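dumping this here before i forget
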Amino acid sequence: MSAAPSTDATRPELALVGRIGRAHGLRGELVVQPETDRPERFVKLRSVYVGPTEARATTVQIESARVATAGVLVKLAGIGSRTEAETLRGQQMFIPATDLLPLPDDRIYIHDLIGLRVEDEAGTLLGEVTDVMLLPANDVYVVRSPSRGEVLVPAVESIVRSVDPVAGRVVVRPLPGLFDDDVA
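structure:
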């Protein structure tokens, strides 16, 4: 597998579907932590883009994939040993965004949240979504605020009032002290 970034100007927009963890076994299988609600979709994939970032990811053929308790076990072409598999630890797996499965109307892909403006209900700009933390109780939006730095916003209905990727914004009703120093 080549580690060189793709320079193909026609490469599609990519979407994160998994993160490579440790090697599994001696023949180069990888334990992949899926970034999808449907890990069984890996079984049908024939190729993925693998790299430390989307910009540096290269196309790799999938020889086999199966869902297991620890994650998804994936065997990539060109990776034949545990030692070779360990070199991919921490890398990410992407697919073309056009290959994503459709979501119900009340759901949104994480990559569609990244970069959205965060505003309060009066329309005041509070920051921009830079990441989403998937936690057991609820997701948390990581928002870069010009005045507060990184702010963690619980993605719960009482705080996140609406998400509109077409308009490019998330409207929130922040808790006192979240974006300002006024704690009631």
